[in-house]
Amino acid sequence: AATPSYSIATIPADGIGPEVIEAGVEVLQSLSQHLGTFKLNFVNYDWSSEIYKKTGRYIPDGGLEQLKKHDAILFGAVGAPDVPDHISLWGLRLAICQPFQQFANVRPTRIFRGTQSPLRNASTGDLDWVIVRENSEGEYAGQGGRSHRGKPWEVATETSIFSRHGVERIIRFAFETAQRRPRKLLTVVTKSNAQRNGMVMWDEVAQEVSQEFPDVTFDKMLVDAMTVRMVMKPESLDTIVATNLHADILSDLAAALAGSIGIAPTSNLDPTRENPSMFEPIHGSAFDITGMGISNPVATFWTAAEMLDWIGEADAAKYLLEAVEKVCEKGIVTADLGGKANTKEVTAAVCEEIQNNI
Ligand code: NAI
Ligand code: MG
Predict the structure, then answer these.
(1) What is the domain class of 1-103+265-358 according to CATH?
(2) Which atom of ligand 1 is nearest to the CA of 77?
(3) Which stretches of the chain score pLDDT less than 50?
(4) What is the 3-state secondary structure (H, E, C) of 136-165?
(5) Given the CA of residue 83, which atom of ligand 1 is nearest to it?
(6) Relative to the alpha carbon of 292, which ligand is closest?
């Protein structure tokens, strides 16, 4: 059979985005050359806050149609000091996620060998989670408005939207995710004591969908109590599903508990596969370290592995993660993980690990 070939769109965008995407592409190329079992073709899109400041738009006419032709999208980070965050987020990231119906945002977290959790008693194996975040509606549905702007009597609303269709598909996806993992354990997070409409519907839908997955154990948590459980009993959790807002917050906490925001990946998936899915490190554009050459590329490497897994190259994904973890074990890590290496050194070490040990 012919070697499969995948077309990957890269959107490095802002801040450290270009540095980490460059590192990610280098490692992916090294991997595909070395394995020889698949090919990757990269097409770069320069959509960014720079372009926005010049043209007033992040995505040009016809941009989404072009993007749709690719097998996957590798995204850096969007956000600039002189553009309001709600403009950059809605202008680029959500402008891709929402029309492409990437309704499942998947955020794995674990403590890599050779890295340390800020939790005193947690080490590799004690924290191994997948957070599934609803990515199309909820608190970020874009519903609401402002009246009497700037007046002392100004009012604003931010309405959460929960549709049965939207809740059901994310909860089913979460049960499927839990079912594929060894522990088959799902925690459904809501705030159904205080928010008695949408959140109560979540609980009911979870109960209904659970009937289809008799082999998956599921429990329910309120989001506030969940933060406590994540810190105090990390080993009691496996797969977690929550709303757009709740999971946004919980997954940053998860990344920090695993050691650094600099290692965590995230996938924006269209599980129907009608549209390409988008893969990105969880971190933002990190203006404080942009251009210093010290950003941790590991989040992007793990992101690249998630992408390979999704497009059907699961073995390559495993090789890549193994190489990254070996490099961490050797102590070749950036400052956010307590090391002295820079972005290029970590990238070179991962490429070397791929060339020598796979
Ligand atoms: P951030 O994730 O950019 O930075 C938070 C802290 O973590 C900073 O001290 C930064 O130096 C550090 N950090 C982040 N990534 C790192 C890496 N790879 N290696 C080492 N250290 C790293 O979050 P912040 O500062 O809240 O946001 C900055 C900008 O990024 C804002 O404009 C925000 O809207 C945007 N943002 C974009 C996201 C996206 O594109 N998906 C996600 C989060 C924030
Ligand atoms: Mg976030």
Answers:
(1) alpha beta
(2) 40
(3) none
(4) CCEEEEEEEEEECCCCCCCEEEEEEECCHH
(5) 32
(6) 1
Please state the φ and ψ torsions of residue 279, each to the nearest 5 degrees: -120, 135
Name the residue type at position 132. V
Residue 295: predicted pLDDT: 98
Ligand 1, atom 16: closest residue by C-alpha: 262
pLDDT at 260: 86
Per-residue pLDDT at 304: 98
Q: Residue 116: what pLDDT?
A: 87
Q: What is the pTM of this model?
A: 0.94
Start-end of CATH 3.40.718.10 domains in the chain: 1-103+265-358, 117-258
Looking at residue 123, what is its pLDDT? 86
Three-class SS of residue 7?
strand
Which residue has its alpha carbon closest to ligand 1 atom 1?
Answer: 284
Rounded CA separation 130/180 (Å): 11
Q: Which CATH architecture has domain 117-258?
A: 3-Layer(aba) Sandwich (3.40)
Collapsing DSSP to helix, strand or coil, 54 comes out as helix
Residues 196, 125: Cα–Cα separation, whole Å: 36
Read off the tokens for 284: 């933002």
Residues with CB under 6 A from ligand 1: 16, 77-79, 85, 93, 261-262, 280, 283-286, 288-289, 295-296, 299, 334, 336
Give, as residue ranges, everything with CB less than 5 Å from ion ligand 2.
248
- Residue of 283, 324, 328, 347 to mutate, ligand 1, most atoms within 8 A of C-beta: 283
Q: 269 C-alpha vs ligand 1 centroid, how far in Å? A: 21
* Contact assessment for residue 192 and residue 162, using Cβ atoms and an 8 Å cutoff: no
DSSP string, 243-278: -HHHHHHHHHHHHHHTT-TTS-EEEEE-TT-SS-EE
> Is 14 in contact with 286 (CB distance < 8 Å)?
no
Give the pLDDT confidence score for residue 207 in this predicted structure.
98
Q: Whose CA is nearest to atom 40 of ligand 1?
A: 77
CA 75 to centroid of chain Cα atoms: 10
